[in-house]
Amino acid sequence: MSSITWSLGLRGLVADAIRVEVASQRGPSAFQLVGLAEASVREAHVRVRSALKLSGVEIDEYLLTVLLAPADIRKSGSLFDLAIAVALACEVRRLSQLENFAKTVWLGELSLSGAVRPVRGVLAAVLEAKRLGFERVVVPKDNGGEAAEEQGIEVCVVSSLAEALSFVGGGALDKARPVQTKSETVRSVDLSEVRGQFAARRALEIAAAGEHNLLMIGPPGSGKTMLARRLPTILPPLEYNEAREATALHSLAGLLRPQSGLLNQRPFRSPHHTLSSPAMAGGGTLIRPGEVSLAHGGVLFLDELLEFSRSTLEALRQPLEDRCIHLARARETAWFPAALTLIAAVNPCPCGYFGSTRCRCSADAVARYRRRLSGPVLDRIDLQVVLPPLPAADFVGREGESSANVLERVVAARSRQSERRQKLGLTARTNRDLSSAELTRAAPLSSEVRALLTQAVDGLGFSARGVASILRVARTIADLEMVAPVRPEHVAEAIQYRPLDRVSGAAQPSAASW
Ligand SMILES: Nc1ncnc2c1ncn2[C@@H]1O[C@H](COP(=O)(O)OP(=O)(O)OP(=O)(O)O)[C@@H](O)[C@H]1O
Ligand SMILES: [Mg+2]
Q1: How does the average pLDDT of the chain come out, rounded?
Q2: Which one of 62, 239, 326, 416 has the fewest CB atoms closer than 10 angstroms to its CB?
């Protein structure tokens, strides 16, 4: 006799159905696991043997073979434990009920005592199980919340192997229940706390409205970090599909707390500058999403941008361009979405006090520092804004406008973009993604705008890429003002947000340009 259960092998957000087949013979106790299993899966026998024993199933008198098929797909991780243990228990007890579970997927890691422990990637696995035609997924109780809202597939939760075995024997399992994400995660910061810095506040609003990337340049203590941390408070709420994607990615990375539901806020990732390029892009033996994907649907904040290594910044290039990332490792490839808004902050010179008497940097040091700002990442940042040191008068001045007020304008500007998208059949969701061809349709140029742009190219040395970026931002500014055509004043404002390009080709911005 052989007993069969089903599990899933995840490759990023995609999964393969894995058939777990167990054969037994009476004989000297032995356990053989075949089917391209990595160390983490091969160790299953220790967990499974102990869990079965403590759940009342004795497998010591058998020679057991576990086959994970298809044999040419590499298996890693501990989520096959439950499927293996259920198949083994049915095999040694000669139970035939497993035939009723041909459309059931079992996911879960076992502890030595037989408890079912949470695993990564359950939401992605449930979505894939549905796509693969399964009708039921049994998941660890702690993972129930993330998968509970999925329609069209039954999601059951289990907290011990004994419960799973009683389910096979005809008992019942609880269904996964949606979890309300707790209010403790609600952000407690507000834009009103930021005083002065009107240009930077305006740039932040434009960034939120059109999903434009933003670079803030300013001395220490001018409010760069403070502003960046408040961007999520002026972004529209997560839509259901966005929440699902973001939750699936966080779950794959092992960042969801036990028993949590779908994420209810846009992610805000702010990795330290020592971050490696695989941690930025994603990778590892079990391919996991990196920072660019964890920020999907939200914000990636790179404070002290120039402290990040060149290779780490290089890893940003593809996701900033394509809004997704393809990862290729020795034996597998994966794809993750990475639609993020990049907010970067830098000081204007190595000491940070450029332009004031406190600055101790030589002209050479400043020029070298600024040259490092050009390149692949800067090319993809639509908005650059210079923050002056905060004047004392601003410190004691009035509070800034609240996040709620700004959010209202952002949401209205976003709806204008969606309406235009539908009307013109655009692929770009927001202005930031408008291709050159779409830009001509979304922002047709009047003769005045054309004249202004020609002047900008001739006089200020903007490249073609720079002009497209100016137009996208101008489109967003017009959307914020609820104005249909892009007007010269919108373009003029957008030009202000590219101070680093104003000297030919952006290769060597001069100190004077700041
Ligand atoms: N515009 C502002 N309004 C109100 N408080 C501010 C402002 N700017 C700075 N502060 C105060 O100064 C502190 C430091 O600001 P922040 O960390 O944002 O500066 P920064 O520009 O990121 O500096 P650094 O270059 O050192 O990282 C804030 O926590 C806040 O208390
Ligand atoms: Mg800072």
Answers
A1: 89
A2: 239
